[in-house]
Amino acid sequence: MSRPQHKRQSPRREASVEGVPIRSLPKVSLHDHLDGGLRASTVFELASAQGISLPAANSRELGEWFAERSNAGSLVEYLKTFDLTVSVMQSAENLTRVAREYVEDLANDGVIYGEVRWAPEQHLEGGLSLEDAVQAVQDGIEEGEDAADANGHSIRVGQILSAMRQGSRSPEIARLALDFRDDGVVGFDLAGPEDGFPASEHQEALDLLAQEFFPVTIHAGEAAGLDSINSALLDGRALRLGHGVRIAEDLEEIAAEGDEVRVRLRDLATWVRDREIALELSPSSNLQTGAIAQWGTKIEDHPFDLLYQLGFCVTVNTDNRLMSRTTLTRELALLVDTFEYGLEDLETLQLNAAGSAFLPLEQREELIELIQEGFERG
């Protein structure tokens, strides 16, 4: 395969590909955290109303603070910024508002299907039960969907409930997800600090979900390497990998001449590629957290294109829109500018995401048709 000639430019405000605005194209978002997708203005307003100390004098400065603090090159440091967003998400009213705005923002970005992940166990300090918290988020999602429909944009969003891998409540969260499987919850996730907290420590929850044939995605291959991915697949029976970028460690370069490079896939990488286990890649976030540090510190160093060319089921995601000051449109524009992708490439990436969504087959097929029709219209 040939190595692309990288461009070093930022996407324009109205990013486009082959003359088509990327924002207008139908998109699918699989990896986007609720507590990382708040509007800076909402965080500022809610925190001020609750008397929570803020590190900025206004919402604009607060947005800059999140971006600066998140660009630390470490997942552990990156996660510290969530203390503030989670602190304003401790009531049903606030959870509903945040979820509603989350859906509205996705719809404004051209997303037609999204999966929002969040950890209910982190939102109980105001007296909510786990069930109350999930219902509050579901209420907000449905309000956002209705508002988008009224504005002529159809969008549907499902919840992925995350258990914190450094905690002990994963069996409880797994049962919670199963209780709401017909009421908005489409999947389960393990989130939080990855290194040192393998999926195997949550075997009870993961076995229960497997017995109930409930979809699982696990953060793996971000702050930890191949052992973490291996555990997610074997212990967690994960259908997707949260980030999974470090699967590139299982590639062996066997020849390189000029712009041509040949690589060999070892067993784990072969399994992930051949089984079409989706990689929930998040280019900007992967730079911020240091997930691609062994390959470099710039977007052109990201192994995204290598994995794409090798046939992995790569998808594009935002991870945390507030911390990365990004949108799905911006992430796609970064890839267009860096790897010279065209409309056909962006369509493939969206079809990968649609085919990997935690939806019944018939609904995935409908989603695929909507994407194909949208890209045909341009």
From TrEMBL:
Xref: Pfam families: A_deaminase
Top-level class of the enzyme under EC nomenclature: hydrolase
Chain ranges passing through the membrane: none
UniProtKB keywords: Hydrolase, Metal-binding, Zinc
Cofactor dependency: Zn(2+)
Domain Adenosine deaminase per the UniProt entry, residue ranges: 26-373
Domain of life per record: Bacteria
EC number(s) reported in the record: 3.5.4.4
Presence of the UniProt keyword Metal-binding in the record: yes
SUPFAM superfamilies in UniProt: Metallo-dependent hydrolases
Iron-sulfur found in the keyword field: no
Entry-linked Gene3D superfamilies: Metal-dependent hydrolases
InterPro entries on file: A_deaminase_dom, Ado/ade_deaminase, Metal_Hydrolase
Family recorded in the similarity comment: Belongs to the metallo-dependent hydrolases superfamily. Adenosine and AMP deaminases family.
Protein's UniProt name: adenosine deaminase
Native species: Microbacterium nanhaiense
Lineage of producing organism: Bacteria, Bacillati, Actinomycetota, Actinomycetes, Micrococcales
